[in-house]
Amino acid sequence: MLSRAVCGTSRQLAPALGYLGSRQKHSLPDLPYDYGALEPHINAQIMQLHHSKHHAAYVNNLNVTEEKYQEALAKGELLEAIKRDFGSFDKFKEKLTAASVGVQGSGWGWLGFNKERGHLQIAACPNQDPLQGTTGLIPLLGIDVWEHAYYLQYKNVRPDYLKAIWNVINWENVTERYMACKK
């Protein structure tokens, strides 16, 4: 359902659920040869310094830059829309959490885009009822509140799961979906 074209475009966006924003950090790759393998042309000390210090610094800086980029995406137009439509990010978070906790049995809590009004809205759908098909809202962020999504770790304490889920949301993907819907 979530991988279908969004907002009438053929562009495929990564599912907001499943990916959960858990980007793997880049790591310094091992060299396929020993530091001393290029001697006498380049000595082992130069290779070790370049690889373990300079190359490692580039990799670390790439990770820092990507983290800052993701934070910036969540703070751009999407954050402004959240503030406009819910008052603040904290109020939005409270409302979506409350809607998700309130789902009886299994279902989903949603942040959707109302194309007619040009506003964000929160909705909840029972079972596997699709957001767009039942409310007309375009899905931006879905929180799975079926027990299989959290029961092994959180047992029947859905509020604890919903508190934790905010730490793994892929805001880059939510922002991409929002920007696509505004077109």
TrEMBL record:
Record EC number: 1.15.1.1
Record-linked InterPro entries: Fe/Mn_Superoxide_Dismutase, Mn/Fe_SOD, Mn/Fe_SOD_BS, Mn/Fe_SOD_C, Mn/Fe_SOD_N_sf, SOD_C_sf
Superkingdom of the source species: Eukaryota
Keywords: Metal-binding, Oxidoreductase
MF GO annotations: metal ion binding; superoxide dismutase activity
Domain annotation Manganese/iron superoxide dismutase C-terminal: ranges: 75-177
Enzyme class: oxidoreductase
Cofactor (UniProt): Mn(2+)
Catalytic activity: 2 superoxide + 2 H(+) = H2O2 + O2
Chain sites annotated for binding Mn(2+): 50, 144, 148
Family as reported in the entry's similarity comment: Belongs to the iron/manganese superoxide dismutase family.
Subunit structure: Homotetramer.
Protein name (database record): superoxide dismutase
Organism of provenance: Pan troglodytes
Gene name of this polypeptide: SOD2
